[in-house]
Design goal:
This protein is mainly alpha-helical and 89 residues long. The longest helix has 15 residues. The chain has 4 helices and no strands. 60% of the residues lie in helices and 0% in strands. It has one domain.
C-alpha cells in the first residue's frame, strides 16, 4: 500500500458524516417500532420526533432529529421525503 493510497483512504474516511450518539440506540429500537406502529414504514415527521424523544432521548433537539433522519436515510434504515415537511427544514 502506497502512502498516496493510505492518504486517499484516510481522506475518504474523514469525509464520512459523523454519527450522533443516538444513532445506535435508534437503530436498535427500529425492529420494535416496526412491530408497534401500524403505519410503519410511513410515519409523519411529528410521529418520528415524538417516538425518538419518548424511546431514545427526551432532550434531542430538532437539529439532532434532522441529523438523525439523514443518518438513518444514509444507512438505508428509513426513506426520508423532504417535501412532506414544512419549508423550514
Amino acid at each position: 500500500m502506497t502512502s498516496t493510497h493510505v492518504h486517499s483512504v484516510v481522506c475518504r474516511l474523514q469525509s464520512l458524516p459523523q454519527t450522533l450518539g443516538i444513532l445506535d440506540a435508534t437503530v436498535s429500537i427500529l425492529p420494535d417500532w416496526r412491530r408497534v406502529l401500524a403505519e410503519f414504514p410511513v410515519v409523519s415527521w411529528t410521529t418520528f420526533v415524538e417516538y425518538i424523544r419518548s424511546r431514545v432521548n427526551v432532550l434531542a433537539t430538532e437539529e439532532h432529529m434532522r441529523e438523525l433522519i439523514n443518518q438513518l436515510h444514509f444507512l438505508g434504515e428509513v426513506y426520508f421525503f423532504l417535501q412532506f415537511l414544512d419549508q423550514t427544514f
